[in-house]
Amino acid sequence: MPQGVQLAQIERIFEILDRLGISREAVIIPLRPHGTGSLSMLAGGTLEIVVPATIPFDDWYASLEDAIQKLRADGTTSAS
Questions:
Q1: Could you tell me how far CA 38 lies from the centroid of its own chain?
Q2: How far is residue 27's CA from residue 55's CA, in Å, rounded to a whole number?
Q3: I need a surface site. Which of 1, 6, 20, 69 has the fewest CB within 10 A?
Q4: CA distance 44 to 36
Q5: Average pLDDT per run of 10 along the chain, which is 80 residues long?
Q6: d(CA 54, CA 65)
Q7: For residue 73, what are the CA distances in angstroms to 22, 29, 30, 31, 32?
Q8: If phi over 0 gives left and psi between -120 and 50 gives alpha, with beta otherwise, what is residue 37?
Q9: For 5-76, where are the E strands, in sequence order?
């Protein structure tokens, strides 16, 4: 398991953000994976995407776009 989030993973996340029309400047992706990963809306509408440490990236990534859309639609502040 890599120690940090890889550039290739960030680029894949950016593909989803671009498809959804979310500005890359409105997103924070911490460089350290953590737990099962998470999505949160921070103050000012910034989306934080935490890549998981305990789930294979591809498995998590497969549901990321739907999770982002649900978070935005629900108006909640976090989702796992």
A1: 7
A2: 21
A3: 1
A4: 25
A5: 85 98 96 96 93 96 97 70
A6: 19
A7: 14, 21, 23, 26, 27
A8: left
A9: 27-28, 38-41, 47-50
